[in-house]
Amino acid sequence: xxxxxxxxxxxxVGSWTLLSWLASxxxxxxxxxxxxxxxxxxxxxxxxxxxxxxxxxxxxxxNILRIFFWIGKQFELTLLLQSVxxxxxxxxxxxxxxxxxxxxxxxxxxxRLSDLNLHYFWKWSAFEDYLLFCFxxxxxxxxxxxxxxxxxxxVETLGSLAVMFEAMLGIPQLLQNFHNRSTKGMxxxxxxxxxxxxxxxxxxxxxNESPAQFWVCGSVQILIDVAILLQVLFYSQDIRAKLG
Length: 244
What we know:
The chain has helices at residues 2-30, 35-45, 54-72, 77-104, 127-148, 152-167, 171-180, 188-207, 212-235, 239-243. By secondary structure, the chain is mainly α.
């Protein structure tokens, strides 16, 4: 009987380990999944007006800050890897948007980061400018973190800023929809996957006793996701067509 009990316990441990690895895999790559249908939507329509590239800005800042937060307070490696994957995903989205916008542009005038024109901030014509901005932001964060790494207050503030920006993820899209008075060009599948992902990761944060900043961020994101879905209901004449 003792041998049977040991085998059962080993099976339970093995199953739990497998589920833990599966959950970690979903956490790392699941955050990038919602952008696949939006990427396809932009490719199909050759139009970027329905998608707010400021979503990319928010996520890039949030995940760069989260990486430096990890340096100061080493939490799950899964969340660090998730940030790296998300940064690469946002660069892929920006590269596509720049390509489509340049193809559709009638005017030969281009807006560059070097123009230092705040009116065209994050509306640059060249993908390289987005890379340069993120590189500069990363260098500034690295220098400040190096100087203040021993400060617990600084590290916790860094973490709070990271999750605050991440919690704002859906706000640019919410405002874009409001400005356009339409959700045309925005992938509803993307928002549904946002919602499912935010529910999953908030549960993951609570179960894994991650820093409080993370589950608070997740809860705020769920509320914003619901607000965007309500916009879809308000602006759309044919819900089934948008889900198709």
